[in-house]
Design a protein that fits this description.
By secondary structure, this protein is α/β, with parallel strands linked by helices. The protein contains 17 helices and 5 strands. A 5-stranded parallel β-sheet has the order 2-3-4-1-5, covered by helices on one side. The chain is globular and about 65 Å long. One of its GO terms (molecular function) is DNA-directed DNA polymerase activity.
Length: about 350
Amino acid sequence: MVLYRKYRPQKIADLDIKEVREKLEKTLASNYRPHAYLFAGPKGTGKTSAARIIAKILNCEKLDGKSKEYEPCNNCDSCQAITDGRHFDILEIDAASNRGIEEIRDLREKIKLAPVSGKFKTYIIDEVHMLTTEAFNALLKTLEEPPLHAVFVLATTEPDRMPGTIKSRCVTFPFRKATREEVVHSLNRVIRGEGVKLDTKIINEIAEVADGSFRDATKILEQVLSEKIDSIEKLHMSLGRLVVSPEVFLWKLKEKKVRELLQMIVEMGSQGADFRFFVTSLLNLLHALLLAANGLPQTDVSEKMKGAYTSKEISELIRHFSDVYQELRFISRPELPLETAVVAWCEK
């Protein structure tokens, strides 16, 4: 089992983002639990994990719903089934691939049926902003008059793309990017669980590269452990950072040296670099350049780089490489989105 799933939070107290943890505690300890939750925030911050915890709390055999106790026992048959992903009454829907009105109509028909084995049917809809307008309209009718045995948990990385009518029917829980300290705390929990030792500098560097994502941090940690990486230099090599630095890459892009840039990408690919993390590094640097261009001091950016691009160009590049990052999720040749983006920019 991959580490991120193995060490996925199983109760409210396990959630690493304090504000989310405290708001959920207050909500679930009250007598006025909502029928629809909206978890909004960046990828890898624990939205799906929190949704499954809610499903456990609603269906835990040890909780009667009358006391102030809200943490699931994680031992009863219902909790175990949810942990294993085999509970009949917990339905997870990926709206990115099931975004049409037919899927939501099917949901509306089946939601009328009583739960098979649990107390509540819990519908977890991930990336809900991807639903079509027609599907949102169909979902709205269900959210307005849901059966007493149904609860919705909607998760999204882009709440601004959701209709206001949907958001107004939900209680919203903002999930922000995790701080470096929160990511380090999460990594240390995994490291203790695995019974291994790792240099503090490597742990801190993983937290930096992960850019506020618990999931990405744990994936990098798994890579570090599997490859027996024991130095910052080896970590950078594994992530493609020693092959090409983001600063050099952006400077070559400024000079529109397309041949050299493509050669860099080929070299990264030949050394097994993870392009997602490299593109993340580019976006982090562009973010710092954008702040510097608008008068916010950035000590980690060289004076040479600060004057390389205009504020407008930086904004365009951020959109450019954000698209590249999205494409990397679905493509079989990971170097292609970066190569085509470089060629497109240099041909402007």
